[in-house]
Amino acid sequence: SMAERGGYPHFMLKEIHEQGGVCRSTLKGRISGGSVDLSGELSMDEHTMISFRAVHLIACGTSYYASLIAERIFERWTDLDVKVDIASEYRYRDSKITPDTLVVFVSQSGETADTLAAQRKARACGAYCLAVTNVQGSTLARCCDDVLLLKAGPEIGVAATKTFMGQITALYLLAMYIAKVRGTFPIEQESELIDELLQIPYKIETVLEREHLIEELASKFAFSQNFLYLGRGISFPVALEGALKLKEISYIHAEAYAAGEMKHGPIALIDPNVPVVVVAPKDSLYEKTLSNIQEAKARHAPIIAVGFDGDERLASDADHVLCVPPTLEEFSPFVTVVPLQLFAYHVAKKRGCEIDKPRNLAKSVTVE
Ligand code: AGP
Predict the structure, then answer these.
(1) What's the distance, CA 126 to chain centroid?
(2) Which sites are catalytic (predicted)?
(3) Quick count: other Cβ atoms within 10 Å of Cβ 193?
C-alpha cells in the first residue's frame, strides 16, 4: 500500500530517498574521538589484522560493484594485496586463498547461493571470512568468522539502492579500521577524511532534493534504446552500477566501460542516438575523462555528465549536467551514484515499467 511505501509510488523511490539516513546509521557508533573503531563489534583482534597479507572481496551484482569501489579504497589506504571477484567465478577458479587472506563476502541478503558457496571454499582454505550484510541472522552471517552489518533496514525493491549505500559505507569503515591498525592509514589526512565522511549523509540529501531536475532529463531520454556509461578510477564502478540500474528496471540496453577503454572498441557504437552518461567528478582523473567526453561529442552523441557543483568546464562540454555537491576524491561514489539511480527510476517510470518487481528478477538468488 501507499502507506507501506511511506507515500512514495514505489519502494525503490522510497529506498533511494532513505540513503542519507542509511549512510548516517551505518556510520553511527563506529566513529569515536575522530577515528574509526570497530573493535566493539568485530571479533578479529589486532594480531589477526596485522597478519593478513591479502584481502579478497567477493559478491554478485550490485554488491560486486560496491566491492569494486571498496577495492580502490583498500588499495589506497592499506598495504594489502587486493582482489575482487564475482562469487560465481571465484568459487570455481584457482585463485590462491591462504590462511593469511581476509575474504570479505558482500551480500545484502546473506542468502545468495554463489556467495555462500564461495564462502565454503574460502573456509576450506583456512581464510578468515567476514560477512558484510544487511541481515543479521542470514546464512552468510552465521557461516563467517565475523560480521559487519549495514544499517539499511529491509529493502523491498528488487533493484538494490539503499543497501548499496550501506555497503559502501561499511566497507569504507572496514578499510579505514584495518589500515589504522596496520599503521598504513594516512594519519595526517585522518581528520579531514573523517570530517568529510560525516558530511556525506547531508550531501546525499542535497542530491535527493534535486530529483525534479533528474526527472526532467529522464523524460528527454526515456525512449532511447541504448546507453553507454563511462567513468574512470573510482567512478568506473559507479558507471557499472548506473547501467545495471537502468537495465534492471527499464529494460534498456546499457553498457558501462572504463572511459579509457572507449578507443578499444565501444567507440564504434557511438552515434547521435546513443546517449553517453559520463561520471566526471573533479578528481585526479578529471582531465582524462573530459577528453573522453570530447571524443564522444565529436561523434555527435548526446552527453549527460554527473559532476560537481560549479564545474563550468563540464557544463560547457556536456549537453546536460547532473550536479552533486563536491567532495573528496575518495568519497565521490556516495554522491555520484544517486543521480544515476534516480535517472534509471524516472526513465523506467516514463516507460510504464513495473519498477519494484522487474521481469525475470528475484530479490535474492538462492539457486546457482
Ligand atoms: C541489484 O539491483 C540486483 N537485483 C542484484 O544484482 C543483487 O545485487 C545481487 O543478486 C546480489 O544480492 P545480494 O547482495 O543479496 O547477495
Answers:
(1) 29
(2) 363
(3) 19
For 276, the enclosing helix (H) or strand (E) is strand 276-279
40: Cβ contacts below 8 Å, ≥ 6 apart: none
DSSP 62: H
Q: What is residue 120's predicted lDDT score, i.e. its pLDDT?
A: 98
Note whether 204 and 20 are within 8 A (CB): yes
Which value does ipTM take for this structure? 0.98
User: CA angle 226-289-258, nearest 5°?
Assistant: 55
Looking at the DSSP bridge assignments, the partners of residue 107 are 133
Return the C-alpha cell found at 323.
Answer: 550536479
- Alpha-helical (H) ranges within the chain are 11-17, 19-27, 46-51, 61-77, 87-90, 113-124, 139-143, 162-182, 190-208, 211-221, 235-250, 286-298, 312-317, 332-350
pLDDT at 322: 98
Going from the Cα of 64 to the center of ligand 1, the distance in angstroms, rounded, reads: 8
- pTM for the structure as a whole: 0.98
Pocket flag, ligand 1, residue 87 (CB < 6 Å): no
Q: What does the pLDDT look like over 214-265, one tens digit per residue?
A: 999 999 999 999 999 999 999 999 999 999 999 999 999 999 999 999 999 9
Please give the pLDDT value at position 27: 98
Q: What is the pLDDT of residue 318?
A: 98
- 252 CB under 6 A from ligand 1? no
Residue 133 scores a pLDDT above 90: yes
349 counts as catalytic: no
Which residues face 222 on adjacent strands? none
Confidence of residue 1 (pLDDT cuts 50, 70, 90): confident
Q: Is 58 buried (19+), middle (13-18) or exposed (0-12) by CB count in 10 A?
A: buried
Query: In the beta sheet, which residues pair with residue 101?
Result: 54
Pairing of strands 35-36, 54-59: unpaired
> What tens digit of pLDDT does each residue of 142-163 get?
999 999 999 999 999 999 999 9
Angle between helix 190-208 and helix 332-350 axes, rounded to 10 deg = 20
* For ligand 1, mutation pick of 12, 112, 360, 368 (most atoms within 8 Å of CB): 112
Q: Whose CA is nearest to atom 9 of ligand 1?
A: 61
Strands 146-149 and 101-107: unpaired
